[in-house]
Give the backbone structure.
Amino acid sequence: MTESALRCENVSKWYRQGFSARRVQALCDVSLTLERGEVLGLVGPNRAGKTTLIKLFLSLCWPSTGRIWRFGQPAYRRDTLARVGYVPEHTLIPLPLQVRHVLTMHGSLLGLPPAAIRRQRDSVLAQCGLEAVAHQSADQLSKGMLVRLALACALLGTPELLVLDEPFEGLDVSGQEWLRATIARHKSLGGSVLLVSHNGAEIERQCDRVALLDDGRLVYCGAVPGLRAYERGRASGSTVCVGVGRQEGPLLAASTL
Amino acid sequence: MKLVSAFALVYFGQLRAVAALARKSGLLWLATAALTVGCALCASLRVTGGLAAEDQEVLEFVPSHDREAQRPAHLARHGVEVAQGEWSIGFGFVRMPLGRDARDAVRLVLLLLVGGAADAPGLLLALLWTAGFVPQMLQERHAVQLVSRPWGRAPWLVALYLAVVTLYACFLILFVGCTWLTAGMRTGIFWTGYWLPVPVGVLSFAAFYAFSALFGAGTRSTAAASLATVVFWLICWGASSGWYMLSSLEPGQLSSAARTLCQVTYYLLPKPADQTLALFQALGSHTHLGVPAWMQAGVASFSLGIYVSTTLAFTSVCTCLAALLMRRMEF
């Protein structure tokens, strides 16, 4: 059996607010699995804990309780991060560095040798349509081009898993088409994608499964049509069955909304 | 070996990023302006006259503006020479009578220039300008994609710290080199001792920037890091100056607890007063400038070895703490 791309078990995360003793719960007892070759959508309202969950998966912060694995290894093993490409929600490169130099910097942080960095850099520049701006300063790029640059950085090192946090924001129609094609190509090559989006149509179009976070809790995880039923039930205030984090798991929990 | 080459690659990446930040923040323009002014002053330096003898150390002489110089016959009887001539700067805008000889005048000008660049004024300006680099690089929007890479966060921060120190070292080398060359080509006097402030200045900057990086990593705020670095420099200056003043105090003038505190802070913290003294000794400034009165009693206690070793120890501890902080940091 192959290991999952991402897995978390009973993960909770709370932050201390400023210097006060008050704690803010960002995630509560979340269990979720992203299988290899799968595209999982992560949805939920603002402040639901989506970005926090992503950061936990990428060791950008640590869980207060619970455990996390990447490719079968505990999340504290940083070497598995080489198999992940991440596009953050708010892409910002404040440095007046040339686009190709931004990519070189990311390549060096992947531990790639200089020749491989150059080769892969040229390849992702072409793949992301950034060849024309390769010598341009990154802080002068438009928002859409910055998303492309962030994706180019993420694609360096040919990752097995792409974690995309609101990647469609700021992209024009052709950019969105290009991103869809990139996700589809990545999936066809056996890669996994964790896609965070507020755009329901994109989630339906791209994802095999969807996970819904609300107020730090995983309230639904399963097929996309099931999410629609869940949301209809939620709107009418009826009782709805929800799935647990594992794709193959039975419907275990029931939530009355 | 593979790890070293990988670190070198990350370091050069950080160096490029730091240079970009310096360009964006205007630091490069400031450095270029300082370099231009320094070189212009050296290019405008003109010396005429001076002592006849080359060996100035054994020569008996008086400067031309001295009262004794008005009695040349008397001086000649005793074998004392009068230093004739003048030196000017700013293409004749500022004229001064020659104190000794041409070499002496060139040394004074270079001494004032390097004192500005490598001692307190240049150091504080560089610290203020670069204090924001670490917090800026650690801003969440910029850093999350970088620190989600497999490369360790701690060496990433150390590479960033080294890149900033390298930038300052490059500026100092360029400043000293250009002014040295310009003054040399203008007057024919190449003073090799002028290069000694480079290691002293870099050592001091490395120590204070280690504190700045630690504070910047802890707060991720440019304003807080800048303010804390200046306040810390003032505290260190007070502590190291206080240590020199101790020697001039009578035993009963200060409590033993205060004395112990003064000793402990002197050995633990970086020492701006020692930096000034190290520059003073390295440049042989005693012929031009006097040691401040409050330091004179303690000058004999100054040890270059202790200054260098304790400064290096402080730098290492601060850098390690900043690296540890970076490892545990949440984004």
